[in-house]
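Exercise: predict the fold of this chain.
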Amino acid sequence: MKPSVGWALVGMQFGVLSALLVFPAGDGWPRNWIVGAGAAALLMAGVLTAVVASFRLGTSLTPLPIPKNNGTLARDGIYRTVRHPIYTGVLVAAAGVVVWGGSPAHVIAWLALWGVLSAKVHFEEAMLREKYLEYHDYQKTSGRFLPRWSSLFPLKKPAHPRVLNRSSSEV
């Protein structure tokens, strides 16, 4: 991927985020203290997730969907179950803005943000698979934006699997 394409995606990401913040509030639902508390909780949870994930990446952090040459693959901490927790945090925080904004324009902008981040991930993961041989296996055990159910609650394999023969399975 050319850096110019990466920067274009970053620009679109921040453009959509800016639109979310400047759109006028709508009347899609009442804005009361319950809605405000929910919006604030989403905003804080999203920012906290993105900050924790950013610190975990350390010097590997880049705004571009292009891995750094001297970067390392993070697979521990928050990255154990989610491959792109910074984007998760951005989406959750933006959902808080949508909840408070209460307009169809906010919802459409959030969907556009999800689309831009999904495009970034598409390009980024192709390059991560090329750079890190273990990335393909990592994709099988972790979710893109949310943890996989199996990574949260792994199924225990039986010590002695029961083998059924043909005659015992027929009734």
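Check your answer against the key: Residues 60 and 72 are 6 Å apart (CA to CA).
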